Amino acid sequence: MSERLPILRIGENLLVSIQIDLDDQTVLNLQDDLAEQVVKHSARGVIIDITAAEIVDSFVGRMLATIASISRLLDAETVVVGMRPAVAITLVELGLSLGGVRTALNLERGLAILAEHAAARAAQA
Amino acid sequence: MTVPGRDTTADTVRTQPIVTSDDVVRARQLARTLAVECGLSLVEQTKLVTAASELARNTLVYGGGGRMDGEVVSRTAGRGVRLNFTDHGPGIPDTDLALRDGWSSGTGMGLGLSGARRLVDDFVLRTEVGEGTAVTVVKWTH
Ligand SMILES: Nc1ncnc2c1ncn2[C@@H]1O[C@H](COP(=O)(O)OP(=O)(O)OP(=O)(O)O)[C@@H](O)[C@H]1O
Ligand SMILES: [Mg+2]
Known about the structure:
The structure holds two protein chains of two kinds. By secondary structure, chain A is an alpha/beta fold. Chain A has four helices and five strands, in the order E-E-H-E-H-E-H-E-H. In chain A, helix 1 (about 25-40) packs parallel to helix 2 (about 60-75). Chain A is globular. In chain A, about 35% of the residues are buried. Helix content of chain B is about 35%, strand content about 30%. The structure holds adenosine-5'-triphosphate and magnesium ion.
């Protein structure tokens, strides 16, 4: 059954954590829901936590890249955090380098990247 | 549970029908179970399960559904997991093209088949237009 993952709001950022093995429809739902929530909350950052994800295949990989592109168009930055080493090794061999996707080792560093972005933005304004 | 004293034994075959996208999730889970039973390393498990995910999705999306049969196999040099994906869909007219990185007849990234081939040790694709497609992969312990 397809489901909708909970999206948490922390200040100006949205956080979604991939905890279960997702079917493809749930992955697509997440893409749509995140775009909607970015606009609804004028979010500045999106963090996708894949610490619990045992694999990232081409479908999920494409979703991560698409979310990054969509949120960029909506003036928000995406950071994927918590990728397991075995997942990273497998993704490269699969042929997915996820070049356009910002990554961080963990949630803390991901939040730090978003905070830097926010600071740079404030300095520009 | 290898039969002692026998070489190239096959364990019992376990079958997962692939009819819905939930079945793709179940196929991944069965692949994982077999990989753990077989004693594949974490990286090897991850590669096998990722390949299984790609192939199961192709079976569903392009083959119109089918099945995955999986088993633990052994040879003198060690054990492995063999997964067999079959469907009775339209088949693949040009396998060289289908196996090329980045080629998709649909909206995919065209990485499923070529990527799955890189992620496993043995990869055999048999297909006939109008008859269907069968992909067999094996990941061996190293
Ligand atoms: N079981 C199948 N039956 C019929 N055609 C298939 C089957 N599997 C793959 N193909 C064909 O081979 C092409 C390449 O498959 P591949 O998995 O590499 O890419 P994709 O599924 O299009 O994209 P991706 O997997 O990267 O999302 C498909 O677009 C499809 O035309
Ligand atoms: Mg595919």
